Amino acid sequence: MKEGSLGVGRPKRVNAIFLYPLPLPQPPTLQEDSGEQVSFLLFHRQERAFRMPKSYSQLIAEWPGAVLLLCLAVILLCTLAGLLGGQLPDFSKPLLGFEPRDTDIGRKLVVWRALQALTGPRKLLSLSPDLELNSSNPHTTLSPAPWSSAQESMLRPRRMVEPLDDRQESFFCGPPEKSYAQLVFMSTSAGSLWNLHAIHSMCRIEKDQIRSHTHFGALCQRTAVNECCPSWSLGNYVAVLSNRSSCLDTTQADTARTLALLRACALYYHRGALVPSCLGPGKDKPPRCAQIPTKCSQSSAVYQLLHFLLDRDFLSPQTADYQVPSLKYSLLFLPTLKGASMMGIYLDRLAAPWRLSDNYTSITGMDLGLKQELLLHYLAQDTVYPLLALVAIFLSIALYLRSLFLTLMVLLGVLGSLLVAFFLYRVAFRMAYFPFVNLAALVLLSSVCANHTLIFFDLWRLSKNQLPAGGLAQRVGRTMHHFGYLLLVSGLTTGAAFYASYLSRLPAVRCFALYMGTAVLAHLALTLAWLPSSA
């Protein structure tokens, strides 16, 4: 290169030119008659002029940071608007929304709940009517009458009764109430529970698995002498009718005498004559109570056994003539209130199946008031599996791309799509209820995003190999040409598949379909800008 020539290629635009003298070993002395010359190097500084991008690929190639910042701003604004525009999602009732609507079972469920609300002591439908209320309006209660032979074959619903003052309070702490925790026993050998071994077995299981728990003493209802009340169980009622101190003290003769008493009184119960208003030694009773034998009405034990603790087929009109009637199920009321306070006893003693049975009986059902609490408990435990799935998905992406930065950007893209979908779900679609099942969208959308990410970077590497001398804008354009069509078809078909589930009769499924379909479409729009800008 000659002195004074340009040391760079041909510039597009020269903004400034600077001349610098070449350094010499000794400072030159300039004389008018001297023939020495001073050599200079010519330098230039090139400044790039701002030009509007002519295509989307050129915008991605020249301004990737601005595109990423714009996407982040949109995600942030949608997140704030979605969270501040209404209440935060509440997952305290995860079963909410799974009840069918506009179906036969849904309409029957509404009628059943209305019937439950009107049934009970001093209500419209009651076996223990309020006499004053009944006298003012004879149509507000149902007075049981003798049943015909056809009516005796109908199933009788189990209803709770109000406490009466003339019950035997010396043993039980009042009558069994539906607010108490309940256990259902059945025979292990598929035989009858009406035998001494099965009765003692139920008492032992209750004592060993429930009453021995450290929390039971703090939860149980207590007697006047500050002791835990006995349970309303078959064994304890046999003990009451036989003057025994506990159910484990009962004998075979006690069970035989109790069975004979129940056989004599069951006919009046199934006909609707043996009702709470006829119980006790009082004299102010309805006239229809005169037909009931004294041994059946002098104590509430007979009525409570037939009404609460024994199954409906035991000593029914169809099986009353059996020499040995079969008792399939027996209910036990614990002297503890249903609710979250029973969670410790359930998890420690009743959750393991091997604790619920012995050689004679087993606990086949229970109502501890823990339905919502147990669902939340096991959902919290099972969240480890979706988390493992997410770790596996993004670990696979990281190993395939060999870049933690790109993996992080993919994760942010998934979260951003979900947040934008939440904004549209709340603000655009005005959906106030956000069911727990919507959280499954995180795993599903992550798998969809992983598929799109791997395809995009495969196309990106292919375009680099096919256009080794091409510019960045050309490679971006070639990649987006193929990837855009693929993403558009995949996103629209996947979103349409989820939106189709909106036709379901279950509200939770409809909410999930709306949210997941919106998340897929938001991911489609965000991926077209976010993913190539990150690359």
Automatic annotation (TrEMBL):
It is a multi-pass membrane protein. Residues 401-535 form the SSD domain. The chain crosses the membrane at residues 63-84, 384-401, 407-425, 437-460, 480-500, 512-531. It comes from the Eukaryota. GO terms for cellular component: membrane. It is found in: Membrane. InterPro entries: Dispatched_Hh_regulator (IPR052081), HMGCR/SNAP/NPC1-like_SSD (IPR053958), SSD (IPR000731). Keywords: Glycoprotein, Membrane, Transmembrane, Transmembrane helix. Belongs to the dispatched family. PANTHER family: PROTEIN DISPATCHED HOMOLOG 2, PROTEIN DISPATCHED-RELATED. This is Protein dispatched homolog 2 isoform X1. The lineage of its organism: Eukaryota, Metazoa, Chordata, Craniata, Vertebrata.
